[in-house]
Amino acid sequence: MKQLLKISKIGVFALFIIIGLSFTSSEGDVKYKCMIQMVSYKGEKAMVVVSLIKPDGTYDRTLSVLGKDKKWYDEMQKWWDFHVKAKEKIDGITGASIAGSQRRVVLIKVPASAIDKKYKIRVESGVEDQKYVSNDVEFELSKDNINKNINGKVYVSSVRLIPG
User: How distant is the alpha carbon of residue 50 from its chain centre?
Assistant: First the structure.
């Protein structure tokens, strides 16, 4: 009986380790589901870029791009300047653009070392023949902001990061 109890405790401990590792990849990245809710607007689908911003306000990396049509990427001016200089490969983090009133959930990975270190998540948006918004949503990447709805300014109604 004692041996069975000991094995059970080891099993529970191992389960906690596995669950903990599922939130962190081998590179020290933390995975989040990033839910983006758009406002109701008229016009074409929006292109949306989610980026990790360093404490000094410069781009660290692109986390997600909603809009596969590369011919419009240069319309997202601030992000495009960074993207071209950084020569990022974004093929694995792109998806279809998003229309007004729609909601989309994208998976993003951020370095664990950036959490609670003054890094920010920035969401840029743009709609064809309408304006580009370089900081539709911007918030600190902190434990306090996880699972919180962060309001947008123009096309994005809100953004929420959910562990997992």
Answer: 5
Residue 47: phi, psi to the nearest 5?
-95, 135
CATH architecture entry for 27-163: Sandwich (2.60)
Burial environment of residue 36 by CB neighbours within 10 A (0 to 12, 13 to 18, 19 or more):
buried
- pLDDT digits over 2-48, tens only? 554 455 555 444 434 344 444 444 469 999 999 999 999 999 999 99
Instruction: With 0.70 as the threshold, say if the pTM is over it.
Output: yes
Tell me if 66 sits within 8 A of 97, measured CB to CB: yes
Domain boundaries of the chain, sorted by first residue: 27-163
Order of strands, sheet of 156-163, starting from the edge strand that comes earlier in the sequence: 103-111, 29-38, 156-163, 150-151
Matching residue, tokens 């929006």: 46
Determine the Cα–Cα distance for residues 35 and 158; give it in Å rounded to an integer: 8
